[in-house]
Design goal:
With about 325 residues, the protein is α/β, with parallel strands linked by helices. The chain is built from twelve helices and twelve strands. The chain has one domain: NADP-dependent oxidoreductase domain (TIM Barrel, Alpha-Beta Barrel). Helices cover about 40% and strands about 15% of the residues. The protein has an eight-stranded parallel β-barrel, surrounded by five helices. A two-stranded antiparallel ribbon has the order 1-2. It is globular. Bound molecules: NADP nicotinamide-adenine-dinucleotide phosphate. The site of NADP nicotinamide-adenine-dinucleotide phosphate has 27 residues, from strand 12 and helix 11.
């Protein structure tokens, strides 16, 4: 496993980090908890030293699963990995979504996440998104206050625009930023967010890297997902057909390295100097085993450009 410095912290983080969105069992069809537990344990046992989660991933379900996975068995995995969680999404008693990063709600998230994860102090907490009602300054100030009080080691934000990032960084130094960034979604680079983070010593862990399976060796079709999996709508239609052809072209580039298209898509983001780690979701240990082989794999600038032009041309 390859490790890189996380911004200006003293933490060397694996360049591939397990994301647990799917383990929350919402929007991703049926999820087998035993597979989820085995996947978390496999990742920790194979050197992944950070796990990404959020209060909103199954409204606490993913956070609880992480605790069970780390504490289960004769050789508890506590201490072998850090956990990054995100505050923003919850549900009220009527199952209505609450999107709230107000100071009062952040305090509730803090208490709840500590309990669900079974820790006294949270390793890394990000504000998952702007809730469109709490000013950025107020939200970040509260997060930084909890850090200063010793409840959180490192702080950051996710899904912020460049302007929001700039405002947040003026309130308190951020240690991590989590944007959507991939071969198919390059906005964070094009609008200057990656450069801003690099200039300010903010590490980046990005999601969307393998397009939820669009950059898999065998791409599933819409009918293979139950209708409560968001991919049952996305993996169909003319755009999807274009993406399948892009996958085939990129596979040829990957083959030159003896790698799969999944590895190539991961290497493409990791080869950008602003990216510290790729966040990836796995359904089972076998997927993790395959994708982990991209750790340390990097592309030259020419190869990155070649991949990007395959995508740009393929989407025309
Ligand atoms: N901050 C945010 O707003 C935000 C948003 C989204 C995600 N995230 C984070 O990023 C993580 C990754 O999410 P993502 O949306 O980017 O998902 P992703 O990693 O692009 O997709 C995960 C899915 O890809 C498929 N897959 C992975 N490896 C495979 C392999 N070797 N062969 C075949 N299929 C494979 C699996 O599909 P199957 O289910 O079909 O097996 C898996 O469930 C999340 O868990 C979360 O931690 C953050």
């Amino acid at each position: 496993m390859h490790y890189q410095q996380m911004g200006r912290t003293d933490f060397k983080v694996s360049d591939i980090v397990l994301g647990t969105y799917k383990f929350g069992a919402r929007d991703w069809g049926a999820v087998n908890d035993l597979d989820s537990l085995a996947t978390i344990q496999y990742c920790v046992d194979h050197g992944m030293n950070l796990i990404d989660t959020a209060t909103g991933y199954g409204m606490g379900r993913a956070e609880r699963l992480i605790r069970y996975a780390l504490d289960e068995g004769e050789h508890p995995r506590r201490g072998k990995t850090r956990i990054m969680t995100k505050f923003y999404l919850w549900e009220d008693a009527d199952d209505e979504a609450i999107r709230d990063v107000s100071p009062a709600m952040q305090r509730k998230f803090l208490t709840g996440s500590k309990k669900r994860l079974g820790v006294e102090k949270l390793d890394i907490v990000l504000l998952h998104a702007d809730d469109l009602k709490t000013p950025i300054e107020t939200a970040v100030e509260e997060l930084a206050k909890m850090q200063a009080e010793g409840h959180i080691e490192h702080i950051g934000v996710s899904n912020y625009t460049l302007e929001q990032l700039q405002r947040a960084q003026k309130v308190a130094p951020l240690q991590n930023y989590q944007p959507h960034f991939s071969l198919l979604s390059r906005g964070a680079r094009d609008d200057g967010r990656l450069d801003f983070c690099r200039e300010n010593g903010i590490s980046i862990g990005c999601f969307g890297v393998i397009g939820k399976g669009l950059f898999a060796q065998r791409i599933k079709e819409a009918h293979e997902f139950p209708n409560w999996d968001h991919r049952s709508r996305k993996f169909a239609g003319p755009e999807f057909e274009k993406k399948k052809r892009i996958n085939a072209e990129l596979s040829k580039v990957a083959a030159r390295h003896g790698k799969s298209v999944t590895h190539l898509a991961i290497a493409w983001v990791l080869s950008h100097p602003a990216i510290t780690f790729a966040l990836l979701g796995f359904s089972n240990p076998a997927q993790a085993e395959h994708n982990l082989q991209a750790s340390g794999f990097r592309l030259s600038k020419d190869e990155m450009d070649e991949c990007e032009s395959i995508v740009v041309e393929g989407l025309k």
